[in-house]
Design goal:
There is one protein chain. By secondary structure, this protein is α/β, with parallel strands linked by helices. 48% of the residues lie in helices and 11% in strands. The chain is built from 15 helices and 9 strands. It has helices at 23-30, 34-50, 70-80, 91-101, 115-121, 133-152, 162-175, 185-191, 205-215, 224-240, 253-260, 262-269, 298-302, 322-336, 349-363, and strands at residues 55-61, 86-89, 107-108, 123-126, 129-132, 196-197, 244-250, 279-284, 315-319. It has a 6-stranded parallel β-sheet with strand order 6-2-1-7-8-9, with helices on both faces. It has a 3-stranded antiparallel β-sheet with strand order 3-5-4. Helix 3 runs parallel beside helix 14 and helix 7 packs across helix 8 (185-191). The radius of gyration is 22 Å and the shape is globular.
Length: 364
């Protein structure tokens, strides 16, 4: 019986790695199976299809990646190279971004950490990362002073979205002319007009400080409905303009769902004709079978209208620790992906909202 020939593309026969290999060459030569293969596919999907001028890219950031250094090492370069148009982040990531920029870099905890002693010494712990309580208190003051002054001077008038608040904070960081400002997500988002949202604005120390201002009678006027409509408007605008929408997810949680729910908001709630996001990449260590995958796999997301069913081949989930996967993915992009002209979607926010509102009014 003659042997069946395999296609060359399916053969796993990598060359030996050599001294001086780059991240991109290692990924292309050796990431051939299991989750390494998925990471390689995530790299190529972004470079070959997502990073195009007519694709609007949302970045969803979960957990506390900034204290681990991913804000400065990965997310800021992604913004600087034009590969992010709008962001949804947990408040924690943005709060810790402020620590770093204000001169309180996190420290690595010793292996034999004693939490009771840390409490006595005024240290707070995030897994194997330490922050002095001073960092929290100074950051709290910075938030209240910055936002409070904007309210008092009429520069921040409700109703506003969380992106308005985050832009104020980023502008204030830039105005302080700190050496560390180049490492800040919030500052980078101002430089490139990338709006930054928080799906659960009250679930962080930033939200707690805004609540303190409200309690003192200084009305911030933060309204979650504006976040929902603004993010949906960004997606609706690019799709109605003949472009495509991509969501890149670091982790899961509310940030993942908030970025993806833009499509159900357009389709299900507003009743406008749409089919879902075109591209979906998620880096996560969550599992589907326990219900902990925060918005499920791309194929399940199809049933909610979050992902276009015809675009499923351009979606994937890469399982593993974001602190390992994301730096490798970012390094690959920096080697293989061209810079994009920034869309500066912040400047088009009102126009996008107007388009979404007019079509919803027409449909009603």
């Amino acid at each position: 019986m003659p042997k069946r020939r395999q296609r060359s593309s399916s053969v796993i026969s990598p060359p030996q790695l050599e001294t001086g290999e780059t991240v991109a060459s290692v990924v292309e030569k050796s990431f051939l199976a299991y989750n390494s293969r998925r990471l390689g596919e995530a790299c190529r999907l972004f470079v070959e299809k997502i990073a195009r001028p007519r694709t609007r890219i949302a970045l969803a950031i979960s957990g506390a990646l900034t204290p681990a250094g991913l804000g400065a090492s990965c997310i800021v370069p992604l913004i600087d190279h034009g590969w992010v148009d709008w962001i949804v982040s947990t408040g924690a990531n943005l709060y810790h971004d402020l620590h770093v920029t204000l001169g309180f870099p996190p420290q690595r905890a010793p292996r034999d950490v004693d939490d009771a002693r840390l409490l006595e010494e005024g240290q707070v712990r995030i897994c194997d990362i330490l922050l002095p309580m001073e960092a929290l208190l100074e950051t709290d003051c910075f938030i209240r002073d910055t936002v409070g002054a904007a309210v008092d001077e009429g520069r921040l008038k409700g109703p506003c979205s969380s992106a308005d608040v985050h832009r104020l904070l980023g502008e204030a960081l830039i105005a302080k002319d700190l050496r560390s400002v180049e490492r800040s997500i919030l500052a980078a988002s101002v430089r490139w007009d990338v709006p930054v949202y928080t799906g659960a604005a009250g679930d962080s120390s930033i939200g707690m400080n805004l609540a303190a201002l409200e309690l003192a009678g200084r009305r911030v006027g933060l309204e979650g409905a504006r976040d929902v409509n603004e993010t949906a408007a960004f997606v609706y605008d690019i799709k109605r303009s003949g472009g495509r929408s991509a969501v890149v997810i670091l982790g899961g949680g509310t940030s993942k769902n908030f970025a993806l729910q833009t499509e159900p908001h357009v389709q299900e709630v507003l009743g406008l004709d749409e089919r879902g996001h075109d591209f979906f990449i998620q880096f996560t260590d969550a599992r589907e079978d326990t219900g902990g995958l925060s918005g499920a796999t791309p194929s399940e997301a199809v049933t909610w209208g979050k992902v276009d069913p015809d675009r499923l081949p351009d979606t994937l989930v890469c399982y593993g620790d974001c602190t390992i996967l994301v730096p490798l993915w970012t390094a690959y992009l920096l080697e293989r992906c061209r810079k994009r002209k920034p869309s500066r979607i912040w400047k088009r926010r009102d126009a996008c909202l107007k388009r979404l509102g007019a079509d919803y009014a027409s449909r009603r």
